[in-house]
Design a protein that fits this description.
Layout: E1 6-10, H1 16-25, E2 30-34, H2 39-45, E3 49-52, E4 78-81, H3 83-91, E5 95-111, E6 123-136, E7 142-146, E8 154-157, E9 162-165, H4 177-188, H5 197-212, E10 217-221, H6 225-238, E11 242-248, H7 256-267, E12 271-276, H8 278-285, H9 291-313, E13 318-320, H10 325-330, E14 356-358, H11 366-375, H12 380-383, H13 403-422, E15 431-445, E16 448-461, E17 469-470, H14 475-488, E18 492-497
Parallel strand pairs: 1-2, 1-3, 3-4, 4-9, 10-11, 10-13, 11-12, 13-14, 16-18
Antiparallel strand pairs: 5-6, 5-7, 7-8, 8-9, 15-16, 16-17
Helix pairs in contact: 5-6, 5-11, 6-11, 8-9, 13-14
């Protein structure tokens, strides 16, 4: 059973989720929580340590994000990163200044002996990104690292086990960043490293059995890896007490429904029923162009479909979902920005005939979900299946949705996926798909003028979908995809390729 946890207090920085991932990769469970979390709530986690993240604010402004200062007196090891380091110094009486010039990028750090820098060369490359800086640490703290332009690149107190670093150890640009984080976890927090996917499965199966007992659970399968792994985990825990339902909302990829039924009902023996509700969803979405409204309509209609199905089944006590951690984070908490709403995050409406929602993967990032899938014995073609948003193709058809547009996109998307796989790129690229834009343009086909849609291709590399970079697909592969789509798919005469990273963009277009 998992015992260790390190909390990461979110002050709004762009790398905050990455810090959580780095910690988990090192065998220690971690959660991102709002900076405003109360002392009482923090103590209820019984954390081994706390990390204060970076952030875009200054400690001097009215909009400064300030945690309860009592957190620094709990006797729990703390590591402040960038803004977190400035905040510790500010709250404890150190000197923080606004820099005359901003400092971004690589520089050389000169480190002093410290538990935080065990195994780190005295001179190493780090990644700076800040405007304010710590000029002098608080009383009782000593400077443990500097650069030519930053006299206090790191400071700390071995007695208090509180440290602040002006740079970002979590990014790949910092040479020994992982070692620094590992030192905080294992040398300072004394973690045991008990966060493994096998332990997670054993713990979750025990929790599910204890909660469900002999009652029934209804789980919605989408065709994506999250719901597939959630279903398999639930099936392992409660067997025939799990009833899966696949709702065909008319927004699925080509042949997706038949493939899911073949694998999970026919292959693994799960209770799985496929429901064709495409007309019902498309009627609700008629004329709707706003992406947030699309998501809310689809989420609400999903719940209503499940409610209807549940009534036919009789008493169903729980609804299970494949919600994962990025869904929760991106749906926003506290002062965090709402990036986009997720249909499978939030409370259960009072009109529903289910008692409670079970989300067995809620604490996991995408690559952790895949590890669970492999640990459960799922085939690679399921575990490495292309991620697919809950609203399906609704958020890949820009603007108002019609069946004709969906049919165009299904064919274009299938061609892209076929060519990526045929060229051996499917294991290199995290996610790849087509988007049907709402733009039509003039073209020429067979000496005739056309006025058809533009299809955008999107392909990214990533580890957990929190950050992503556009994939460098070879030109000849892009050319083949483009040629096939314009020749084989009616209604398309132009192909473009999206070369935007996340951030500033998201992976999906809507």
């Amino acid at each position: 059973m998992r015992k260790d946890i390190v909390l990461v207090l979110d002050f709004g920085g762009q790398y905050n989720q990455l810090i959580v991932r780095r910690i988990r990769d090192m065998g220690v469970y971690s959660e991102l929580i709002p900076y405003s979390t109360s002392v009482e709530k923090i103590l209820s986690y019984d954390p081994l340590g706390i990390v204060l993240t970076g952030g875009p604010n200054s400690v001097f402004t009215e909009k400064s994000l300030v945690m309860d200062p009592k957190i620094l007196d709990l006797g729990i090891p703390i590591l402040g990163i960038c803004y977190g380091a400035q905040l510790i110094a500010h709250l404890k009486g150190g000197v923080v200044r606004s820099a005359k010039t901003k400092e971004y990028g690589k520089c050389v750090m000169h480190a002093e002996p410290s538990p935080l820098f065990k195994g780190v060369p005295a001179s190493t490359v780090i990644w700076m990104s800040h405007t304010d800086y710590v000029e002098a640490p608080p009383e009782g703290y000593k400077v443990i690292a500097s650069t030519d332009t930053c006299p206090v690149a790191a400071y700390g107190s071995d007695d208090k086990k509180i440290y602040g670093v002006q740079f970002h150890p979590e990014v790949v640009h910092t040479e020994y960043g992982n070692q620094i984080l590992r030192n905080f976890l294992y040398e300072i927090c004394r973690a045991t490293g008990d966060w493994t996917m096998k332990n997670f499965i054993d713990e979750m199966v025990e929790k599910i059995r204890a909660k469900v007992g002999g009652r029934k659970v209804l789980l919605a399968m989408s065709g994506g890896v999250d719901s597939a792994v959630a279903a398999t985990l639930m099936h392992k825990a409660i067997g025939k007490n799990l009833q899966c339902v696949l709702v065909d909302h008319g927004l699925m990829r080509k042949n997706e429904v038949s493939e899911v039924v073949s694998v999970f009902r026919d292959g693994l023996g799960m209770n799985l029923e496929a429901i064709d509700a495409s007309d019902r969803f498309l009627a609700k979405l008629d004329g709707v162009a706003d992406p947030e409204e699309k998501r809310k309509i689809i989420g609400a209609e999903f719940i209503h479909v499940f409610e209807d199905f549940g009534k036919k089944l009789g008493k169903v006590d729980f609804l299970a979902q494949g919600t994962i951690y990025p869904d929760v984070i991106e749906s926003g908490f506290g002062d965090a920005a709402l990036i986009k709403s997720h249909h499978n995050v939030g409370g259960l409406p009072s009109v529903i005939d289910f008692d409670e929602i079970i989300e067995p993967l809620r604490d996991l990032f995408k690559d952790e979900v895949r590890k669970v899938g492999f640990e459960l014995g799922l085939d690679k073609k399921i575990v490495m299946r292309q991620p697919f948003p809950g609203p399906g193709l609704a958020v890949r058809v820009i603007g108002a949705i019609t069946k004709a547009k969906l049919d165009i996109l299904r064919e274009a998307d299938a061609i892209m996926r076929e060519e990526i796989a045929a060229n051996g790129l499917d294991s290199e690229i995290w996610q790849y798909f087509a988007v049907l834009t709402d733009m039509r343009s003039v073209g020429v086909m067979g000496d005739m003028r056309t006025y058809d849609y533009t299809v955008a291709l999107r392909a990214v590399t990533s580890v957990d979908a929190m950050t992503a970079d556009w994939a460098r697909i070879p030109y000849e592969v892009l050319a083949k995809i483009s040629s096939r789509i314009v020749n084989e798919v009616n209604g398309v005469n132009r192909i473009v390729y999206d070369i935007t990273s996340k951030p500033p963009a998201t992976i999906e277009w809507e």
